[in-house]
Design a protein that fits this description.
By secondary structure, this protein is of the alpha+beta class. The protein folds into three domains: 92 residues, Butyryl-Coa Dehydrogenase, subunit A, domain 1, CATH 1.10.540; 90 residues, Beta Barrel (Butyryl-CoA Dehydrogenase, subunit A, domain 2); 147 residues, Butyryl-CoA Dehydrogenase, subunit A, domain 3 (Up-down Bundle). Helix content is 51%, strand content 14%. The chain is built from eleven helices and ten strands. The strands form three sheets. It has a four-stranded mixed beta sheet with strand order 1-4-5-8. Strand 2 and strand 3 form a beta hairpin. Helix 5 runs antiparallel to helix 7.
């Protein structure tokens, strides 16, 4: 059985890597991250021109792009549009996104309910207008549209026409910022899909979040390996010291475990496999916790410089923590895997 990506997917990976290295070097990522959040139509058009927003792409194609974009911390709402809002869009919005004219995110979380599972929204609808609050909403200040989970269904709001509903929050990961959505009789358009579609959105987003975590872990490994092969202390390259080399080796093992599970999850969801829920739970738990582990150990391997604001590692560390918190921490997902094994089915365990 062939578990490798197809030739076309590997070409997509190579093209994505070339684009990100050329157009999004570290200094540009830092400059955008430290600036004010805003929609960047030029970058979004570039992603559309490369086909990254094409609705014909499958989940395995998205898995490749998730890994590569996270490895460079692309500060664009690709994950929010493709993984979260994309499956819920109607034809009009989907075509506009594909053309690079619109971008979107999903507003589901509330202070009392942060999970996509079993949503009980307090946002109310009356005569095509929504009232209520959603927070936190990823990339809300960087997109043109938001899909809102309301009490009676899903609605789309044009943020270009109603920018006053967006209220940015203080955000740890500034390459994927959060905001509060405050609705007070805000005009909205009802979408044809119902809340039951959030089940598939949760699976897709968990699989792609795991792939993003792999990209972060790999970049942490690359930075640690490069530093320990060149930095000298006491007349020796520090990578020759066991205390350093073992730390880097542990990162490598963590990356490989997370990668195998993330790829399995992406395949399982793309094929609607019977084990897809167990697969995404295992991948999310291992890959996101692995990303945090990889970044922490990479920081340690860098010594004092790894703790400085000027070094890029803290930005990957913050993305890793965002991914670890997204849709539940590892213990929640490990409980799902245990239930699937012990009960012999896909029984879900509440967080």
């Amino acid at each position: 059985m062939d578990f490798a990506f197809s030739e076309e997917q590997e070409l997509l990976r190579a093209a994505a890597r070339d684009y990100l290295r050329d157009r999004w070097p570290v200094d540009r990522v830092v400059r955008v991250a430290d600036g004010a959040p805003s929609h960047d139509p030029a970058t979004w058009r570039e992603l559309a021109d490369m086909g990254w927003l094409d609705p014909s792409l499958g989940l395995l194609d998205h898995a490749v792009l998730a890994e590569e974009t996270a490895g460079m911390l692309l500060p664009a709402p690709w994950f929010s549009t493709v993984a979260l809002a994309g499956p819920l869009l109607d034809d009009e919005l989907r075509e506009a996104v594909s053309a690079g004219e619109r971008s979107a995110t999903l507003a589901w979380a509330e202070p009392s309910s942060w999970t996509l599972r079993g949503q009980r929204s307090t946002v109310t609808a009356a005569d095509g207008r929504l009232t209520g609050t959603k927070l936190p909403v990823p990339d809300l200040a960087s997109v043109t549209d938001v899909v809102v989970v309301a009490a009676d269904g899903l609605y789309a709001i044009d943020l270009v026409a109603h920018p006053d509903v967006v209220h940015p929050l203080s955000t740890m990961d500034r390459t994927r910022r959060l905001a509060e959505l405050r609705l007070d009789g805000t005009p909205a358009r009802r979408l044809d899909v119902g809340p039951e579609a959030l089940v598939d959105v949760r699976r897709r987003s968990l699989a792609l979040a795991a792939c993003e975590a792999v990209g972060v872990s790999q970049r942490a490994l690359d930075l640690a390996a490069e530093h320990t092969k060149t930095r000298q202390q006491f007349g020796r390259v520090i990578g020759t010291y066991q205390g350093v080399s073992h730390r880097v080796a542990n990162i490598f093992v963590t990356v490989q475990l997370g990668r195998s599970l993330a790829y399995w999850a992406a395949w399982a969801v793309s094929e609607a496999d019977a084990q897809q829920d167990a697969a995404v739970a295992a991948a999310k738990s291992a890959a996101s916790e692995g990303a945090v582990f990889a970044c922490e150990n990479a920081i340690q391997a860098h010594g004092g410089i790894g703790f400085t604001w000027e070094h890029v590692l803290h930005r990957f560390y913050k993305r890793a923590q965002w991914l670890e918190a997204f849709e539940g921490y590892g213990r929640t997902h490990r409980a799902e895997v245990a239930a699937a094994i012990l009960d012999g089915d896909d029984t879900e365990v509440a967080a």
